[in-house]
Amino acid sequence: MKVSVKYFASIREALGPGETVELAEGATVGALRELLIARSPAHGEALARGKALRMALNQALCDEAAVVTADAEVAFFPPVTGG
What we know:
One of its GO terms (biological process) is Mo-molybdopterin cofactor biosynthetic process. The protein is an alpha+beta fold and 83 residues long. The chain is built from 3 helices and 5 strands. A hairpin with a 2-residue loop joins strand 3 and strand 4 (60-62).
């Protein structure tokens, strides 16, 4: 299934505004994060496990256990962002 990924603040500076990712049915936000970390060194650094990171699924804050559905939008951003 296709999922739209959006990046904000410092993550956007490192990776760009976003991308479309092919993801297995029933995958979680955490699985998506792992897939992205493995995508490139830049992704690995920006989305690293040790970094504080917030996530949203279809514009609602979520944790890594949230299940992603087809055509969903997942956003990654640091815990504090500017206006």
